[in-house]
Specification:
Elements (H helix, E strand, L loop, with lengths): L2 H5 L13 E3 L2 E3 L5 E3 L6 E2 L16 H12 L4 H10 L6 E6 L5 H9 L3 E7 L2 H7 L6 E5 L13 E7 L5 H7 E12 L20 H6 L5 E15 L1 H9 L9 H8 L6 E14 L2
Parallel strand pairs: 4-7, 5-6, 5-8, 6-7, 8-9
Antiparallel strand pairs: 1-2, 2-3, 9-11, 10-11
Helix pairs in contact: 2-8, 8-9
């Protein structure tokens, strides 16, 4: 049985919350909502939600390529190590990487925690196409986790949310008793240097403190500050800007023109907080 087939035990219909079973090249619920399994190996669980507009489309191919290049230089390796350290050493059952993109973090966790199986849920179809091939114990699902997480109540033992927004109450709903949520929050000075001369999105101060108390009935069990200064070329700085949500608000040529006027290498602060919160049994 593939990991995606096994994941039907924890997935639910995004339209009605019903149980999903394998059917006709995909999955269906008792209300006859049907969802296709793509030939690339992921399950499409996208549905319109009344009053919430069209489902999000997620990261573009260009954003994913920029992030892959940036991660390929090792700039996020300390962050990935901190995420792994926040996952209990004896974790078993199911891991859900919410807004997990290509499964870069989930794959590292699965390598180190052999008793876990995982599912990446992301709105980006290009991302889940990659995630479907990222790890043999990782399933990929195209879903808008901002409007609702198509996972059953108390079905996962570890939930990752790395740089991804979403509902704390939904995370609580899907966590099993004793389950752990690992949340990565950028600090206010994260990549602050790139904001000089550019109108980039800003993270409010104290965001990590808010997240630390956001999940009902969950206790903070660890908090790690991951900070470093990296020296970037102009191309690497461009990737830092365009691998995230700034890509939806900026023109690459205009940003490149600003950065090329700076003296390279460009010194940039990477500052995030990794929180682990455990649901009380």
């Amino acid at each position: 049985m593939s990991t995606l087939d096994a994941a039907l035990d924890i997935l639910q219909c995004p339209s009605c919350g019903g149980v999903l079973v394998a059917a006709d090249g995909g999955a269906s619920c008792p209300q006859r909502h049907h969802f296709d399994r793509a030939r690339q190996g992921y399950l499409g669980l996208r549905a319109a939600h009344k009053g919430k507009g069209a489902p999000a489309s997620g990261d573009t191919v260009e954003m994913l390529e920029a992030r892959e290049r940036f991660q390929g230089h090792g700039f996020h390796d300390p962050l990935r190590a901190a995420v792994l350290a926040a996952v209990p050493a004896d974790a078993r059952g199911w891991l859900a990487d919410l807004g997990g993109g290509t499964g870069w973090y989930a794959s590292a966790v699965l390598d180190a925690r052999p008793e876990l199986r995982g599912v990446v849920l992301d709105a980006s179809v290009p991302a889940v196409r990659v995630a479907a091939r990222a790890h043999e114990r990782l399933a990929a699902v195209s879903a808008d986790v901002w409007t609702g997480i198509p996972l059953r109540d108390a079905s996962v033992d570890v939930a990752l949310r790395v740089f991804a927004p979403g509902s704390a109450s939904e995370v609580r709903r899907i966590l099993a008793p004793g389950g752990t949520a690992v949340v990565v929050v950028p600090d206010a000075d994260h990549m602050r240097e790139l904001g000089h001369g550019l109108k980039l999105l800003k993270v409010p101060a104290g965001k990590a403190d808010e997240v630390a108390v956001s999940i009902p009935d969950a206790a903070l069990v660890s908090r790690a500050e991951v900070r470093s200064r990296v020296a970037l070329t102009v191309e690497q700085a461009l990737d830092a800007v365009f691998m995230g949500p700034n890509a939806f608000h900026q023109d690459r040529a205009k940003v490149a023109a600003v950065l090329e006027g700076w003296s390279a290498p460009i010194s940039v602060t990477l500052a995030v907080t990794v929180l682990a919160l455990r649901v009380e049994v």
